[in-house]
Amino acid sequence: MELKGIGASPGIAIGKALVIKNEEIKIDKKTNVDIQAEIKKLRDAIVLSKRELEQIKNKVAHEVGEEEAEIFGAHLLVLEDPELIGETENKIKNETVNADFALNETKEMFVSIFESMDNEYMRERATDIKDVTNRVIRHILGIKVVDLSSLDEEVILVAHDLTPSDTASMDKEKVQGFLTDIGGRTSHTAIMSRTLEIPAIVGIDNATTSIKDGDILVFDGDNGVLIVNPEKSIINEYKEKKKVFEADKLELEKLIGQESLTADGRKVELAGNIGTPNDLEGLINNDAEGVGLYRTEFLYMDSDKFPDEETQYQAYKKVLEGMKDKPVVIRTLDIGGDKKLSYFHMDEEMNPFLGYRAIRLCLDKTEIFKTQLRALFRASVHGKLRIMFPMISSLEELLKAKDICEEVKEELSSESILYSKDVEIGMMIEVPSAAIISDILAKHVDFFSIGTNDLVQYTCAVDRMNQKISYLYNQFNPAVLRLINLVINNAHQEGKWVGMCGESAGDEKMIPILLGFGLDEFSMSPISILRARRLIKSLNEEDMIELAEEVLDLESAEEVEKYMDDFIASRK
Ligand code: PEP
Ligand code: MG
């Protein structure tokens, strides 16, 4: 069987499927049960859960950080609470009911007590109680809980989608590849798979329903083709492909330490996109010349409360120090749209991507924004920091955000806290209105970074997560190309530099056009950096200026894509 999705992260994967289904917990009340047997079930399930949580906690502490491991420590504490367990055992004895039912009732009682407390910290504990008791209930019912952090064998994960905490805690040695039902090239799971350098295909409509645990899978993360239970000859073919891929990787490593220059000597900056300080390793291994986008929202999404100033300061400091004197662009919180926080209520919206998100939310909830800016400016003494605001759509928003930066700097000065005076302030160009007035905006920033993932969705009015209309989501759309060209020209007119941190920056069919437009910095998944350097070294800037002019004369995305396919093919 052959299935097709969207190639999200390059590489060849060969392995056994592990299908992750979020089975719903169904609890029935049973009466007149064997009391001793039910109490034993409860106690056994608690022992199993504790063992699991200890393992996860140690692993996360070791591989991710003590701070991130704390949540599992909190879960362990819940399981040690004599009241919760005592109450459940009493229920089993007094009402002669089954263990899962009794524990569920106790859970609901505790959750409602905690949720009604005034203290926010105590209210948040309700979530821990729910999580941990559900883990025990699953064990009582014998529902398999796939623990991604301790896998016994090498697998290819098949899931509806993966959350940032799934990917943060997963055993990277054992996971040979990912396959998901939903998502596109710019969805967060796709971006994460590239950061982890794990081959992946996303958006295979029915992956979790048509693939079974243990099926043998082979796929190529570049073209998005998956074969289920292939014949031996196909497996051998993929083994060969894998060897070629590995050999090319070794070839690319020879470019480490070399400058990113075109054949006629124009220097560009090749930077990397990261989601957490742990991604630095991949960035350094791939010889990034800086961080072009640090998506700080993961710091918020992986937490169970707003990260405080100190937590944020430590994360930013780690990245700045890790990059030594190389520039680091840190984007302020970009939440909303498809990115939610479990601990922050956002109203349902008709059009969340056009709604209350990113800078709009930060300018409304200034206390959240200021905490982040304080942490950023404090961290600025540890490296070369550039701050950038997401989703700016008007001059007013930019000026307000800059005013708040000034306020924060004044506060820090009055508290005698040091910060660097050389922090560059820039903004993302993701919204057509910002691109169109980029001549005005350029006067008020040090740089722009073009976010094509969103710029394509807003310019073409096509939801980047919706597979049904994904044929309309095209970076080669002449409208998008004209906007990119306009933004670069406007910025250069004001003597400002322009980067790109959307996925187009690492795409070999876009790079020649972007070079021709004069883009200064290309920021991409670390895995793409050396491939991009090889391509750039083989191109002449003069020729690319001509190529870009010709491309701008084309009338449709199809024509541009065909032109670029032919261009790339002619060079091989
Ligand atoms: C973009 O929109 O291009 C971008 C880089 O931001 P994100 O993918 O995080 O929305
Ligand atoms: Mg964006």
From TrEMBL:
It holds the Pfam family PEP-utilizers_C. GO terms for molecular function: phosphoenolpyruvate-protein phosphotransferase activity. Keywords: Coiled coil, Cytoplasm, Kinase, Magnesium, Metal-binding, Phosphotransferase system, Sugar transport, Transferase, Transport. Residues 32-70 form a coiled coil. Residues 152-224 form the PEP-utilising enzyme mobile domain. Signal peptide: none annotated. Its main location: cytoplasm. It is found in: Cytoplasm. It catalyses: L-histidyl-[protein] + phosphoenolpyruvate = N(pros)-phospho-L-histidyl-[protein] + pyruvate. Its EC number is 2.7.3.9. It is an enzyme of class 2 (transferase). Its cofactor is Mg(2+). Residues 4-125 form the Phosphotransferase system enzyme I N-terminal domain. Residues 252-539 form the PEP-utilising enzyme C-terminal domain. SUPFAM superfamilies: Enzyme I of the PEP:sugar phosphotransferase system HPr-binding (sub)domain (SSF47831), Phosphoenolpyruvate/pyruvate domain (SSF51621), Phosphohistidine domain (SSF52009). The keyword Hydrolase does not apply. InterPro entries: PEP-util_enz_mobile_dom, PEP-utilizing_PTS_enzyme, PEP_util_AS, PEP_util_C, Phosphohistidine_dom_sf, PTS_EI, PTS_EI-like, PTS_EIN. General (non sugar-specific) component of the phosphoenolpyruvate-dependent sugar phosphotransferase system (sugar PTS). This major carbohydrate active-transport system catalyzes the phosphorylation of incoming sugar substrates concomitantly with their translocation across the cell membrane. Enzyme I transfers the phosphoryl group from phosphoenolpyruvate (PEP) to the phosphoryl carrier protein (HPr). Belongs to the PEP-utilizing enzyme family. This is Phosphoenolpyruvate-protein phosphotransferase. It comes from Peptostreptococcus equinus. The gene is ptsP.
